[in-house]
Write a structure and sequence with these properties.
Blueprint: H1 3-12, E1 17-20, H2 27-36, E2 38-41, H3 47-57, E3 62-67, H4 71-85, E4 89-94, H5 107-110, H6 113-119, E5 124-127, H7 134-146, E6 149-154, H8 194-203, E7 209-212, H9 216-224, E8 230-232, H10 240-250, E9 256-261, H11 262-266, H12 270-277, E10 282-288, E11 291-292, E12 298-299, H13 308-315, E13 319-323, H14 326-336, E14 342-347, H15 362-375
Parallel strand pairs: 1-2, 1-3, 3-4, 4-6, 5-6, 7-8, 7-9, 9-10, 10-14, 13-14
Antiparallel strand pairs: 11-12
Helix pairs in contact: 1-2, 1-7, 3-4, 3-10, 8-9, 8-14, 10-12, 12-13
Length: 377
């Protein structure tokens, strides 16, 4: 099979968004994917799980394409997000680590990979015959029919490349974008708790889509203002902003606000991906209490040194701000509307509010959110 056959099979299955990080055993395919599909390039594989989840909830049919070793970075996100909420996620992977693998580091994880996936309960299809392209389509169809992840491992030798090669001219051009700005940091003593900040956000929401970070932040959002347009995360550390990007990319007419946390943002590589995608309708609210709040308020690394607003600016966000009190937060949210991607760094006090657990199952959260998002109500 060649990349044209694979692309045709994916289109036949209705795939309309591909998140990808390349493999050198399938160069031609990874050059072609951005030309044939709405495409979001990744720098870390697990971000594709969150982006795909948001895209599916918004009505798209996403797929992740990568080298099989990247599945090691994805397993927790797949199980705690894709599997927990019952979401489809076809994953097309060039399978490394086989008999003639030249790189020793590819072998320990990749050679037993089918058994690893089986132990995790993740369906897997192995493509061993270059003439069985339809098996890729069957696996994609199964992922969507059963609402599960499904990994498609393509053995070396099954893919004949007909497109770009390492010797081909680059398909894009490097654009020099001069950037000049003066940055003065004014960190004041925080006066808001996280619950104060979340109540401020919730109070001014009408038709906006809200995605809330895992743990206590989701419970606090539910307590502040439960809405069908709220997506409450129950797991998947570092995936809140990725989910928001997936939604914003598919639904540009809806404003998307992500309530993320400092630990989650620092543990992810999603900010430059958002900066590159540049969705005008996406606002990331980084609630920074300097601790791991949901696990007992243990101090996080860089609590006195890491500047989230400056990191977002360096990642490609043109609009960033730092706020310390409710009025500033409200103004920043209003100022960011329609002018994203925007990042609001909210410095807050540590502490969790004694709010109850969310009395909704993952399926209930999924279904009512997807219905509200797709129907626009």
């Amino acid at each position: 099979m060649d990349e044209n056959q694979i692309i045709d099979e994916l289109k036949l299955q209705g795939i309309d968004l591909v998140c990808a990080i390349p493999c050198d055993r399938a160069k031609g395919l990874f050059f072609r994917l951005p030309e044939e599909f709405r495409h979001i390039g990744l720098t870390r594989e697990e971000d594709g799980v969150g982006i795909s989840a948001g895209a599916y909830l918004a009505g798209a049919r996403p797929l992740v394409a990568l080298q099989s070793s990247g599945l090691g970075n994805m397993l927790n996100a797949i199980l705690s997000l894709t599997t927990t909420f019952g979401l489809p996620l076809p994953i097309l992977a060039s399978w490394r680590g086989g008999t003639n693998e030249a790189i020793p580091a590819q072998i320990p994880f990749n050679r037993p990979l089918p058994r690893i996936l089986a132990a995790a309960g993740i369906p897997c299809t192995i493509i061993s015959d270059r003439n069985r392209t339809t098996e890729i389509g069957d696996a994609v169809a199964a992922a969507y029919k059963k609402r599960t992840p499904h990994v498609i491992l393509v053995r070396p030798g099954c893919l004949d490349e007909t497109g770009c090669s390492p010797d081909s001219p680059a398909t894009g051009t490097t654009v020099c974008r001069p950037v000049t700005f003066t940055y003065t940091r004014e960190w004041k003593t925080p006066i808001m708790t996280r619950f104060d900040a979340i109540k401020t956000i919730a109070a001014r929401t009408t038709g906006e889509v809200l995605v809330s970070n895992i743990g206590v932040p989701s419970k606090e959002l539910y307590a502040a203002k439960d809405r069908r347009e709220n997506f409450y995360m129950l797991g998947s550390y570092t995936q809140a902003s990725a989910i928001g990007l997936g939604i914003a990319s598919v639904r540009p007419e809806r404003r998307v606000i992500v309530i993320d946390g400092d630990g989650s943002l620092l543990g992810s590589s999603i900010l430059p991906v958002i900066g590159a995608a540049a969705p005008k309708n996406l606002t990331i609210v980084g609630l920074d209490n300097g601790v791991f709040g949901s696990t007992g308020n243990q101090p996080r690394p860089g609590c006195d040194t890491a500047d989230l607003a400056l990191m977002a600016r360096a990642a490609g966000f043109d609009k960033t701000s730092t706020v310390h009190e409710p009025g500033e937060l409200s103004s920043a949210l209003q100022d960011a509307d329609g002018d994203g991607p925007a990042f609001i760094h909210v410095r807050i006090l540590p502490g969790n509010s004694p709010v109850p657990n969310i009395p909704l199952s993952p399926e209930q959260i999924r279904d009512r959110f997807a219905t509200a998002l797709r129907n626009g109500s």
